[in-house]
Amino acid sequence: MALPFQTLSTRIPRNTTPLHSPPRVNRALASRKRAALVAASAMYGSAADGAHKRKLQPLPHVLTVAGSDSGAGAGVQADIKACGALGVFCSSVVTAVTAQNTVGVQGVHVVPESFVEEQLRSVLSDMDVDVVKTGMLPSIGVVKVLCDSLRKFPVKALVVDPVMVSTSGDTLSAPSTLSGYRDQLFAMADIVTPNLKEASALLGGAPLKTVYDMRDAAKSIYNLGPRHVLVKGGDLSDSSDAIDIFFDGQTCHELRGSRVKTRNTHGTGCTMASCIAAELAKGSAMLQAVQEAKAFVESALHYSKDMAIGNGPQGPFDHLFRLKSPHYNVGATPRFNPDDLFLYAVTDSRMNKKWGRSITDAVQAAIEGGATIIQLREKEAETREFIESAKACLEICRSSRVPLLINDRVDVALACGADGVHVGQSDMPARTARELLGPGKIIGVSCKTPAQAEKAWADGADYIGCGGVFPTTTKEDNITVGMEGLKAVCLASKLPVVAIGGIGIANARSVMEIGVPNLKGIAIVSALFDRECVATETRKLRSVLMDACSRTNLSV
Ligand SMILES: Cc1ncc(COP(=O)(O)OP(=O)(O)O)c(N)n1
Ligand SMILES: Cc1ncsc1CCOP(=O)(O)O
Ligand SMILES: [Mg+2]
């Protein structure tokens, strides 16, 4: 079939589309993804004759909507490399083609809006995109086309890098695009990531000179509609650190990194936004995604600081540094892997006492049986005793590389150096816990409703514990949400979910077969610890879960 070929327009087109504030991107992605998996599963199932059904695994997917950079330091090329380096698939809708190198931008061909729309339709109607990241949007018409497409094909999150001027000082978007950002796109954005110049342009032109200016700017841009703002201070003069300001509507976080002395900084903005998008696609909370992205960029600049590509003043850097130098892989191990939720053992001091075992013996046995994460839920322990036993459990967990979380007690988690905490709706708010624990610790939040799940994500949690799914005697007066409630929370949640409450050998399979990709495992108290042999019970449950996963499309 002959494909229609369209010549690129050679100017930035004007557009008089009326402006309006669209609703935020809605969140029907999970069900779309599930439908696609079911359809593909059916196809492969018949082809593979039932018994050898192929395991279909959705890949975290970012779509970049940006301009091409012939020098490959920034734009679509940087986005694809950044996502690839972080293990995320990246599709691309090209909004403009630039002739560009380390000297500057020599030319721009803008892709017609109708063809940007066609590319968007091609990708979004077929592929399961988790996160859309925007870069160079050359006209207000392209902004409108993008907003319309996102309303038709909702995604999990939208990352907007409001690219206006290249690092070499060349204009990359029409002045009217500014109003497109302010009046249309920002209201749909989960995060906007301006540098100092872009933040200034968005707010009327006053220059940003200090960290205080950056804080004020972050708050003012937040008032334009996005859920989070990251003002990047890479160009801040008189600062030995690379300081960025992250604002989530309540708290301003000052994120400090070391400033790398190098000429090879072309594409840092695109890379930062793409890394945030990639981390979000993998299921990270927003602050965590931003921290990971900042660490990635800093390491990439450090690795590439003496690299020589081109003869101009601003060179590209190497996104694939982690493949080339094991040194940089040290910090690359994510502190939280959602798959760790698979078989989540929650201790109970009363049960362990009843069976005459210490908490350390209980933890050791659960790990021996295959528990993938441990939570110490010691409701009756005195603080000092709790800290001591938590330290002993942490040693056991560390030697098996199993994360250890503390239930309710952020103070105990801090005191013993645990990997994180689990908090409920009446415990310390997740947002406060995040402020106290910092971005490096794991935070789980108990949620019974989609609204609570949404808030947990916004507050910086890493996962959700949903339940009680079934009635239980382990926790008094706990309202049961049932399988339907669990499913509703999973579908609404951008975070991975673990099911809890009344789960044991008899019903674990039915829970795991609920068929929602972000249900990552089950959390169990009595079916492990109110038994004579914890290791045996854990082993049995593990085999039930493995079996359930091999019957569905879930990865183990
Ligand atoms: C994994 C997991 N999910 C939910 C809970 C319950 O937490 P919470 O609602 O705070 O109740 P308590 O456990 O503190 O009684 C949990 N502990 N773990
Ligand atoms: C802590 C908690 N949160 C909701 S139900 C529950 C208790 C789960 O215990 P069990 O696995 O024995 O039902
Ligand atoms: Mg609690």
From TrEMBL:
Residues 1-19 have a biased composition (Polar residues). Its cofactor is Mg(2+). It comes from the Eukaryota. InterPro entries: Aldolase_TIM (IPR013785), HMP/HMP-P_kinase_dom (IPR004399), PM/HMP-P_kinase-1 (IPR013749), Ribokinase-like (IPR029056), ThiamineP_synth_sf (IPR036206), ThiamineP_synth_TenI (IPR022998), TMP_synthase (IPR034291). Pathway: Cofactor biosynthesis; thiamine diphosphate biosynthesis; thiamine phosphate from 4-amino-2-methyl-5-diphosphomethylpyrimidine and 4-methyl-5-(2-phosphoethyl)-thiazole: step 1/1; Cofactor biosynthesis; thiamine diphosphate biosynthesis; 4-amino-2-methyl-5-diphosphomethylpyrimidine from 5-amino-1-(5-phospho-D-ribosyl)imidazole: step 2/3. One of its GO terms (cellular component) is chloroplast. Residues 1-23 are annotated as: Disordered. It is found in: Plastid, Chloroplast. Residues 69-313 form the Pyridoxamine kinase/Phosphomethylpyrimidine kinase domain. Residues 343-528 form the Thiamine phosphate synthase/TenI domain. Pfam families: Phos_pyr_kin, TMP-TENI. GO terms for biological process: thiamine biosynthetic process; thiamine diphosphate biosynthetic process. Keywords: ATP-binding, Chloroplast, Kinase, Magnesium, Metal-binding, Multifunctional enzyme, Nucleotide-binding, Plastid, Thiamine biosynthesis, Transferase, Transit peptide. It catalyses: 2-(2-carboxy-4-methylthiazol-5-yl)ethyl phosphate + 4-amino-2-methyl-5-(diphosphooxymethyl)pyrimidine + 2 H(+) = thiamine phosphate + CO2 + diphosphate; 2-[(2R,5Z)-2-carboxy-4-methylthiazol-5(2H)-ylidene]ethyl phosphate + 4-amino-2-methyl-5-(diphosphooxymethyl)pyrimidine + 2 H(+) = thiamine phosphate + CO2 + diphosphate; 4-amino-5-hydroxymethyl-2-methylpyrimidine + ATP = 4-amino-2-methyl-5-(phosphooxymethyl)pyrimidine + ADP + H(+); 4-methyl-5-(2-phosphooxyethyl)-thiazole + 4-amino-2-methyl-5-(diphosphooxymethyl)pyrimidine + H(+) = thiamine phosphate + diphosphate. One of its GO terms (molecular function) is metal ion binding. CDD domains: HMPP_kinase, TMP_TenI. Essential for thiamine biosynthesis. Bifunctional enzyme that catalyzes the phosphorylation of hydroxymethylpyrimidine phosphate (HMP-P) to HMP-PP and condenses 4-methyl-5-(beta-hydroxyethyl)thiazole monophosphate (THZ-P) and 2-methyl-4-amino-5-hydroxymethyl pyrimidine pyrophosphate (HMP-PP) to form thiamine monophosphate (TMP). Belongs to the thiamine-phosphate synthase family. This is Probable thiamine biosynthetic bifunctional enzyme, chloroplastic isoform X1. It comes from Ananas comosus.
